[in-house]
Specification:
Number of helices: 12
Low-confidence stretches: none
CATH topology of the largest domain: Rossmann fold
Distance between the termini: 48 Å
Protein name: Sulfotransferase domain-containing protein
Structural class: alpha/beta
Largest sheet: 5 strands, parallel
InterPro entries: P-loop_NTPase (IPR027417)
Oligomer: single chain
CATH class of the largest domain: Alpha Beta
Helix content: 40-55%
Radius of gyration: 19 Å
Strand content: 5-15%
Mean pLDDT: 95
Shape: globular
């Protein structure tokens, strides 16, 4: 059996890949899929590990993964786990400025998968990366849009950038995985492929042309409006978070701001058409 773990990172096309896999899972009945909402308990445990750094939390993470694997059929061609949240909390969350915990989490996954399925299991890990500056700005956008972060983009960059050493994280992850293969591709490269960012994952699954033809593309998830200055928009969302409004009032203000931004985006697209 082949097991493929696609663990993100956050903001590297993971949500789009999962949208495609959700649509494709019924067309690939000989594969088991563990997507974001299929393995929510594992995600929560990973988040606690990254925020608290408690060895007990790592044990709970391992137990959650082992329990999920126990429930899966053993006659499947393979298992695909695709969920960026198994990398822990997103940088910018409380006490989290980097992916320093990623090697620990992925090393623990390797240990549990081999224990549950046997050391002969064909285990593969896949990670997507992207240009660091654009990546950090995308993390800031996600945080101000979906959480209560109050930092401007410039302040967020200044706080996160010194700790955001992806080359080091990847080197430590390779060490933690030992002889288990790790494939890493840049989002800027996979976007140019005919199948888009999901192509490397389909390659690892070993799908032939007939199976691949059944997989339908998906619209990019978590897209941002292009008809406005994104830095100004992100800082405006942060300013709303800083106003001290109730949760409902904050969400309403952010929704209204986004409606205006998307209207401007629609005008720009109509003009370009």
């Amino acid at each position: 059996m082949r097991v493929i773990v696609h663990a993100g990172f956050h903001k590297t096309g993971s949500s789009t890949i999962q949208a495609i896999l959700r649509e494709a899972r019924d067309r690939l009945p000989d594969w088991v899929f563990g997507l974001r909402y299929d393995i929510a308990g594992i995600s929560r445990a990973a988040r606690h590990v990254s925020i608290n750094g408690d060895p007990l939390e790592l044990g709970l993470f391992k137990a959650a993964l082992a329990d999920w694997l126990d429930e899966q059929r053993r006659d499947a061609r393979g298992i695909v786990i695709s969920n960026e949240r198994i990398m822990g909390a997103m940088p910018g969350d409380p006490n989290v400025t980097s992916y320093a915990v990623a090697p620990i989490l992925l090393g623990a996954m390797r240990e549990v998968i081999q224990k549950q399925l046997g050391k002969s299991v064909d285990l593969q890990f896949y990670l997507a990366t992207r240009d660091t500056a654009a990546w950090i700005d995308s993390l800031h956008w996600q945080q101000v849009r979906t959480s209560s972060l109050t930092e401007t983009q410039a302040a967020f960059r200044a706080r996160i950038t010194p700790h955001f050493d992806i080359d080091r994280v990847l080197a430590e992850t390779r060490a933690a995985l030992g002889d288990t293969p790790l494939t890493v591709r840049a989002l800027e490269d996979t976007r140019r492929l005919p199948e888009g960012p999901i192509a490397p994952l389909l390659d690892l699954m070993g799908l032939g042309s007939a199976d691949r033809a059944q997989i339908k593309p998906a619209q990019p998830q978590n897209a941002r409006p292009r008809g406005v200055d994104l830095t100004t928009l992100a800082d405006a969302l942060a300013a709303i978070n800083a106003q001290g409004l109730s949760s409902e009032a904050t969400e309403q203000a952010k929704r209204e701001l986004m409606r205006v931004a998307w209207r401007e985006d629609a005008k720009l697209r109509a003009k370009n058409d």
